[in-house]
Amino acid sequence: MTAGTDLTALNTLQLHATAEHLVTVTSSDQLQAEIAALDEVAVPHVLGGGSNVILCDHLPGTTLLMAIKGHEVLSDDGTKVLIRVGAGESWHDFVVWCHHQGFHGLANLALIPGSVGGAPIQNIGAYGVEVAEHIEAVHVVHRQTGERECLSREDCAFRYRDSVFKHEAGVPWIITEVDFVLDREALVEASYPTLRVRLSEAELTHDAVLAAVISIRRERLPDPVITPNVGSFFKNPVISPQGIDILRQRFPEVPVYPAPNDAGKISAAWLIDQLGWRGEERDGVKVSDGHALVLEGCGARSAAPWLALAEEIAASVKEAYNVSLDLEPRVIGVTG
Ligand code: EPU
User: Fold this and answer.
1) Is residue 127 domain-resident?
2) What is the pLDDT of residue 1?
3) Most CB contacts within 10 A, which of 58, 84, 244, 287?
């Protein structure tokens, strides 16, 4: 292993990667100073909660570990509340804190691992809610120039599991704080099928939704503190109306969810499950028994076996359904 700081405890796949030089960042001012001190051409890596990354063996140069804390209520008109939150706060703790304050909108996103700063990057979503619906602005620092910027929701170009931060124009930005708009009078969102079934007998309150989301996730998804995983390993593929028709002719029961512009979001878990992948194991990585979209570590300590199994699954889905699967987590660092 290359010398440097061990990152095993800082990524939920528990991969044995190293960072050449790891710096913990606790404020935007410090972040700007760290960037100013780097070589002009150096591009630092950034780690948040480490819950949606696949770390290759080594991260050369500087890696910034984002640990900016705190939340501040910026405005409150008695109904809508605007809150600024540090990127290094735990996502789930923030969701629970908002719930206890009576600031509603995020309960469906409970128990998603990771940090507040990671949430906008892949526009985290679950049980019928995407975080973008509640984001007012994202505060960023440019990872090479140190310039500060405040991006509006529109600037962030949020889509299903996607945002500007995953594309060339947005990759240079490091998220330092996020502004959320929440609502004391928000309606309960319980239309997602699994949630609707779980709550069919219950009174529809924010308390009930929070408890149901937590219990469904605990039953179906492995806890990353115990079992290495990053949640869904692939995105649900979004395909054209024609593509859906073709697929449905051959596989009438394939689950399809609505997506913008008449496109459809296909259940990747279903495609993978139908091919018998659940429970399959290769070189210390296994397709979860509980959910076919989730890969679990059972001994693997480097990125290679995870990527190899993902490639094998994607190739089998392509062959059987002519549908391409994209990885959901980001791959960072170099191999060898
Ligand atoms: N299904 C199977 N086999 C399985 C699991 C699911 O066939 O092993 C089928 C079932 O028909 C089920 C359907 O897939 O009804 C949808 O399953 P689920 O409700 O679990 O949703 P998903 O589309 O597989 C997405 C998110 C999850 C999120 C859930 C709940 C993505 C990539 N994943 O999964 O997010 O928790 O919806 O809203 O969009 C994550 O991103 O890490 C994550 C866990």
Assistant:
1) yes
2) 47
3) 287
